[in-house]
Amino acid sequence: MTIRAVIAMAAAAVAVLFSSCSSTTNLASAKTYETKTYRTKTGKQIDNAKYYVVKTTAYSHVEADSLKYGKGSAAGGTLKYGSVRSAASDWSVFPLGTVFKIQGLPYVYQVDDYGSALVGTKTIDLYKPDFDGIKKWGARKVKIQVLRWGSYERSLAILKDRMKHPHVREMAVGIQQKMKSSGRS
Question: Is 34 within a domain?
Answer without folding.
Answer: no
